[in-house]
């Protein structure tokens, strides 16, 4: 690792490029250097001890979300803790105490004693999709992961793979799958759907960087479906595709009937098909079968059952499978990738995968990887493009 002096020198060299907001590479490199510099400057024992108490930050954020403090601070800034107590109904002393750790990590700024104003992160935390994510993850995933030490010890320290006998079932003493648990709780389901509909953050849609015209539209048969979005949810990806490539071909949205029945305002140009991806694929010979954040929810054994159905529907040499998923680095994976992988373990016995893991999984399913398309945004997902072997 470079010395602190060398890292500072690199930052100084890059500083002039930061004025160009379009220079994403400079921003990404500066972020990496700043994290490395922090690791160089901090005392290792302090870092180790800070980790012990780090859950207090996430808990404080969750309470602040419940009290709507981020939105209040963003709207009222600067605002005193007394005013926040009046607006939220919480005790002023409690507000002061939960905002302290959040101020220390720049989620809010304390501009005077007991007086707060918004930072850029405050405004992000006020977004309902992000607030929903904090509620859902803390209520469901964090509780599941807290059971991991006991569960893994009991199961010989092996990764959970059974969607009905994993961390969530152990934590909640349940045999429901994670998805059944979510759908059985209206408030949790609402937060889940809201969060899933906003996980793009500042990242671009795949249609903005994947060569759609060359890889999908060109050579497509007008008699067959162009794009089948499996497990499409509220159709965000299909709508982005349609906006960028209007009238390119037939678009099909597939999801469980409980989801498709709620899509009353969906553009009539998008065909709705109630579908469970563990059953026979009803749309045969499509140009593309698109799965966005589907397979990472499942273990390899479950993925093979899912892939079996789509492989049977694909036309050799024509149909493509596009998996819009995280491509975990083989070495020194970013923290976000590692966190999402552990989240998938807790949620449904799933996992984020490296390129080698994707290749091995698809080969077992009778598919071959044509190309990996790396993400263009920090923390973004790539695309695995595959065809029938």
Automatic annotation (TrEMBL):
Which biological process terms from the Gene Ontology are attached to this UniProt entry? methylation
- List the PROSITE patterns hit by this protein, alphabetically: SAM_OMT_II
Q: Name one Pfam family in it.
A: Methyltransf_2
Q: Which UniProt keywords apply?
A: Methyltransferase, S-adenosyl-L-methionine, Transferase
Gene3D superfamilies, alphabetized = Vaccinia Virus protein VP39, Winged helix-like DNA-binding domain superfamily/Winged helix DNA-binding domain
Residue ranges annotated for the O-methyltransferase C-terminal domain, each copy included? 226-367
List the active-site residues.
296
For this UniProt entry, the molecular function terms from Gene Ontology, in alphabetical order, are:
O-methyltransferase activity
Q: Which PANTHER family match?
A: HYPOTHETICAL O-METHYLTRANSFERASE (EUROFUNG)-RELATED, PUTATIVE (AFU_ORTHOLOGUE AFUA_4G14580)-RELATED
Protein's name in the database: O-methyltransferase, putative
Q: Which organism is it from?
A: Trichophyton verrucosum (strain HKI 0517)
């Amino acid at each position: 690792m470079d010395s602190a002096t060398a890292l500072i020198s690199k930052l100084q060299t890059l500083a002039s490029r930061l004025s160009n907001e379009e220079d994403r590479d400079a921003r990404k490199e500066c972020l990496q250097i700043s994290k490395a510099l922090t690791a160089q400057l901090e005392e290792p024992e302090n870092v180790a001890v800070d980790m012990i108490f780090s859950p207090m930050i996430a808990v404080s954020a969750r309470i602040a979300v419940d009290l709507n403090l981020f939105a209040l601070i963003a709207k009222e800034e600067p605002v005193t803790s007394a005013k926040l107590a009046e607006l939220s109904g919480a005790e002023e002393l409690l507000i002061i105490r939960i905002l302290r750790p959040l101020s220390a990590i720049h989620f809010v700024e304390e501009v005077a004693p007991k007086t707060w104003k918004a930072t850029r992160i405050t405004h992000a935390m006020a977004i309902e999709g992000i607030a929903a994510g904090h509620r859902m993850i803390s209520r469901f995933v964090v509780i599941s992961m807290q059971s991991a030490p006991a569960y893994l010890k009991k199961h010989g320290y092996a990764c959970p793979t059974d969607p009905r006998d994993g961390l969530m079932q152990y934590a909640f003493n349940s045999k429901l799958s994670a998805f059944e648990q979510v759908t059985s709780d209206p408030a949790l389901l609402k937060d889940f759907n809201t969060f899933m509909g906003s996980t793009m953050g500042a990242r671009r849609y795949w249609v903005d960087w994947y060569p759609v015209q060359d890889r999908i539209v060109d050579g497509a048969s007008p008699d067959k479906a162009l794009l089948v979005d499996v497990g499409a949810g509220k159709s965000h990806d299909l709508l982005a595709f349609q906006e960028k490539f209007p009238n390119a071909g037939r678009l099909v949205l597939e999801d469980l009937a409980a989801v498709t029945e709620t899509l009353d305002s969906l553009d009539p140009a998008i065909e709705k098909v109630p579908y469970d991806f563990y059953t026979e694929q009803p749309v045969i010979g499509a140009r593309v079968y698109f799965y966005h954040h589907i397979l990472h929810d499942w273990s390899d054994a479950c993925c093979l059952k899912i892939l079996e159905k789509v492989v049977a529907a694909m036309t050799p040499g024509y149909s493509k499978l596009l998996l819009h998923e995280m491509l975990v680095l083989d070495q020194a994976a970013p923290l976000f990738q590692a966190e999402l992988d552990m989240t998938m373990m807790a949620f449904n016995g799933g996992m984020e995968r490296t390129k080698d893991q994707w290749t091995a999984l698809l080969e077992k399913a009778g598919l071959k990887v044509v190309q990996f398309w790396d993400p263009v945004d920090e923390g973004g997902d790539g695309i695995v493009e595959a065809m029938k072997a």
